């Protein structure tokens, strides 16, 4: 799925959170969106999914393969979500439903968008669990019985169960330790490439961005300040804002 | 399983403790049934004779042991005034009180959950204000005043629209189901609407807390609309909390309907207990209070177990400790 964002603006009350953002993702491309906390990254992903707060005022355009998300009615957006756009959130223990089993959570997009028998759904869940490296027995467990890495793998399985055409990963490694971070990024990249989907990977960590994406946008105070190939941004950032983020990533890597 | 055994043991201990408290409290009260039966101006000899006949002159520990031995064999004793079995008295009264409570709880749940969800989904300022005012005003109305208002509006004979009876219960009881049901409509509406308003406020508040949880955003990311996510995921997440609230509400209604039973002249458990207490019918009162206490504790036990079943997080943390 291709994404074309033009002049996107998001205002809540008197506060402008995002302004004049242009962003493109081609079919099958993995694109990063990096910025410090509060720079507006997650708000852009929410605008793409129609999940901005009720009092947010959006302007501009978010085009998802011909479907305009800004101003679209809720049913249209809900039909896109889960079916064509898979989402992975930051904290799996918060995002997975605490009172349902992992298997029920993973099959939710299938139940909402496709008419499949219980056995067909169970079969798909089993195959998806194997793909993300989880034991089939975990389907009957609850999220609180999983480790952080296992829970994020379950969240990835939920996002990918319908083979969506676009994955929005909103800081999916932030809540994990460094070993689990690398494993999750590698897994996500492999699964996204295998499925041919596009991906928007949101992070504030350049070292993670380098593994996950080929092209990236740097965001500061709700504006895109630099964009280009991720390797170029890492090697020689041309703006002070990108330079600061790269410097911080290098410092963390050395520590 | 260990949790259940631990909970059952604490249930038994609490029940035993309550039996002592009830027995002791009723002996501290001034006056006794012998005075009531003999009359205020009767000679002391007659009162003493009656006390001896009813076993009230025995040592207190002996009276307590005899009472407990009876309870253990299912014999709750006999009314000192009427000689009627306490069990049959309570069963007869409960056949009015419990349907009233269940009916009231159903109304409260329908009103509380329905309006709670509607209030959470409301976007207009006017609608939000309506729900807020309903919650505050409805939950603050004293039961007696609310009941009188419903009588003035819907009672046959005196109401603006005479739909339901407002006094008494049919002589033939549930043998005449239509009349019995009709006589419970206004009392059940009184408790149901008042408790429903409180439940609405609680539901709205719990849903507002859960609305910004990651699991709600995840549910919408999977394809639910906001309203669907609220109903299918939000409500399910808060069900364990609602069960606790409903359990408390259920237990509170048992004593709360005393006022309602008096207002609508229903011969239920509450009004019967008040009458027996006035008559100093010790055996009847202490057995009735014991049954009420056992019922409260049973509701608490049931809610605790149900809470574990509905919230897997509690099961895990409990297992982890053991």
Quick tags:
heterodimer, A: 255 residues, alpha/beta, Rossmann fold, 6-stranded mixed β-sheet, 4-stranded antiparallel β-sheet, 10 helices, B: 322 residues, mainly alpha, MetI-like fold, 2 domains, 13 helices, MetI-like_sf (chain B), dipeptide transmembrane transporter activity (chain B)
How would you describe the overall organization of this protein?
The complex is a heterodimer of chains A (255) and B (322). Chain A has two domains: 3-84 and 166-254, P-loop containing nucleotide triphosphate hydrolases (Rossmann fold); 96-163, no CATH class. The model of chain A has no long low-confidence stretch (mean pLDDT 88). In chain A, β4 (56-64) and β5 (67-68) form a beta hairpin. In chain A, α4 packs parallel to α6 and α5 (118-131) packs across α6. The radius of gyration of chain A is 18 Å and the shape is globular. Chain A starts with a strand and ends with a helix. In chain A, 41% of the residues lie in helices and 26% in strands. Chain A contains ten helices and ten strands. Chain A has 255 residues and is an alpha/beta fold. In chain A, the strands form two sheets. A six-stranded mixed sheet of chain A has the order 6-7-8-3-9-10, sandwiched between helices. Chain B is an all-alpha fold. Chain B has two domains: 1-81 and 281-322, no CATH class; 93-278, MetI-like (MetI-like fold), CATH 1.10.3720.10. Chain A binds chain B through residues 49, 51, 54, 74-75, 78-79, 81-83, 86-87, 89-91, 94-100, 108-109, 112-113, 142, 144-145, 155, 158-159, and chain B through 123, 213-215, 217-226, 228, 233, 236-237, 239-240, 310-313, 316. Chain B: Its main location: membrane. Chain B: It is a multi-pass membrane protein.
Shape of chain A: globular
List SSEs of chain B in N-to-C order.
Answer: HHHHHHHHHHHHH
- How many helix segments of chain A? 10
- Roughly how many Å is the radius of gyration of chain A? 18 Å
What is the string of SSEs of chain A from the N terminus onward?
EEEHEEHEHHHHEHEHEEHH
Work out the number of β strands of chain A: 10
Membrane topology (chain A): Peripheral membrane protein
GO molecular function (chain A): ATP binding; ATP hydrolysis activity
Keywords (chain A): ATP-binding, Cell inner membrane, Cell membrane, Hydrolase, Membrane, Nucleotide-binding, Translocase, Transport
Main location (chain A): membrane
